[in-house]
Amino acid sequence: MNFRKIGLYALVILAFSAVSSFSQTDLVKVKLSKNSITSSVGGSFEVKIIADIKDGFHINSNKPYDEFLIPVTVTSGNKTFPISKVIYPTPKDELLKVSPEPVSIYSGEIAISLNFVVAKNVAPGDYIVPIEFNFQACDDESCFPPDVIKANLNLKIEKGKVVTGAAVSETIDSARVDNNPAELDSATLANANDQGIPESMPDSSSLGASNESGADESILLAILFAFIGGMILNLMPCVLPVLSLKVMGFIKQAGEEKSKLRKHGLAFTFGVLISFWALAGLLLILRAGGEYLGWGFQLQSPSFVIVLSVLLFLFGLSLFGVFEIGVTLTAVGQNTPKGSTYTGSFFSGILATIVATPCTAPFMGSALGFALSQPAYVSMLIFTALGLGMALPYVLLTSIPALLKYVPKPGAWMETFKQFMGFLMVATVLWLIWVLSLQTGAEGVLILLGSLLLVSLSGWIYGRWSVLHKSLKTRRIAQLISGLILAGALALSLMYIKPVTASTGSVHTQGLIEWQTFSPELVAQLRSEKKPVFIDFTAAWCLSCQVNEKVAFGSEEVQKAFADKGIAALKADWTNKDEVIAKELAKFGRNSVPLYVLYLPDKEAVLLPEILTPDIVLGYLKDLK
What is the pLDDT of residues 601-611, one digit of tens each? Predict the structure, then answer.
């Protein structure tokens, strides 16, 4: 009979009945020798994890003598940065009261060396490398259940000369480190990224840098991308109706003094910039607090969708002529003999930015992903460039009035055009109602429709009795009643609508494409099976996503290619707030949708453009047999 095994087996049994006034974090303290490291593409680095074991206790070594004992192990939670070599210290053999034969253990303070080699295809950027210290603490008579202490290593990868064929020890010195050890315990990684997703990762190598000069070039490139993206944003479906009205306002104002026209353009630009600055500031504050948010994040909130629906519905009613106010949000210039005010142009810029958030234009995705990985001042510069790009056409029209000769002359057509735009505003509201249905269900839609009915009543009362030919008393009463009804409509929606549980995707069939619910685990499984994987990061509130859905994935050719080539199609639906999807977006240096990712077998991820056509998709699939 093997008494050693019987004794050790009893020790394991006792592990689940051990009772103590302290947890294992009181028994084992862990710290990293370096909590941040800077290395280069193709380089190597080393870090040690140091464990201090309380007197009278021990942990099993990495190679215990019996297979049922829990060994100490150290692993990396980041698949991009696996540990290339773990060097454990020499254990010692001790006799325990429950075992007649020695047991291989560690006690006191131990240091385990971890060697990493950075792959040549890793993109420069800032990463989090979760390091897990797995162990079981015991004394001479009993053991605690197995436990894990997690630690975050902050890793910055820069471009640099790739060292090949060199031993790890020969290249360690090339890594610059911060030698402030980080004290850690089991709760340290409550916010850790177990998928190893980088906190910031440029969209391409062009947005990464290894030195001060390269960093400056990356920032300038991101600013340029943002500026171009801002200009293209004017052509996106969510922005075009509002800005078409703004152009119509400039046409109306063409007869004014050049200086006044220029001031209207500047007021509009200032409204755009203020909105982008506010949005950027809010994003930076929330992300600093640990939130994973990106462009269009406010539309993940049913409350914001409701407020925007009411705002645009009121806007549509005004365009239909149900009511008019002295300064409309579009400042089209037909409300008073003197034309629109600068305040109206300013609020036009704000409204244009608000309705722009569901859209992502080409160049925007990489620029915004880079922006939110940089210091605050760089982020603000990039958002400023985005706003200036969006405002540029209107600045040019108001600064160079001669350009207005290329647009139609003012006339009766403008009133017809204005009313036609009202239908587009109502169509936008219908789309927002659909978005809300996915966030709150049918009950939320019913409540919002009731609220919009009250909003209509509010607008009708305001337009019917708050007009100049009515007495001052009548106008004041009408304004009061109208305001109370509007406030009640908003309160009704905001108080009683509750969001449904978020999902990382949806399962449905689109022709020959069978979309599966996205999860990082499913991606890993499919890739291990050597299957091609296509991930569609989308959201119901993203108009660009919906257009691509119909144009590209609705194509029979694309659907046939997916089926014939055996492509696993995954849908990551970001309609509601979802940190899993937000972290995956961050992995690719993005914080906005749409994002399309293609994994070919045994190859790195390929990112497709934000705007898709069937030919673009098929072009990326042509090499897949």
Answer: 888 888 898 88
* Shared domain check, 169 and 39: yes
Same domain, 109 and 7: yes
Domain co-membership, 274 together with 397: yes
Tokens of residue 176, six digits: 């610059």
Lowest mean pLDDT among 21-35, 500-514, 566-580, 609-623: 500-514
pLDDT in the model for residue 196: 37
Residue among 360, 374, 193 at smallest CA distance from 284: 374
CA distances to 261, 346, 404 from 400, rounded to whole Å, are 9, 19, 8
Contact 363, 288 (CB under 8 A): no
Within a domain: 36: yes
Under DSSP, is residue 196 helix (H, G, I), strand (E, B) or coil? coil
Dist. CA 323–CA 311, nearest whole Å: 14
* Residue 478 CB partners (closer than 8 Å, separation 6+): 461, 462, 464, 465, 466, 470
The answer on 407 and 274 residing in a single domain is yes
Tell me the pLDDT tens digit for each residue of 435-456.
888 778 788 888 889 899 999 9
Q: Which pLDDT score is estimated for 453?
A: 93
Beta bridge partners of 514: 509
Count the domains in the chain.
4
- Whether residue 51 contacts residue 89, with contact meaning beta carbons closer than 8 Å, is answered with no
Q: Are 30 and 49 in contact (CB under 8 A)?
A: yes
Structure tokens at 532: 């091609």
Give the structural domain span for 383: 212-422
Greatest CA separation for the chain: 108
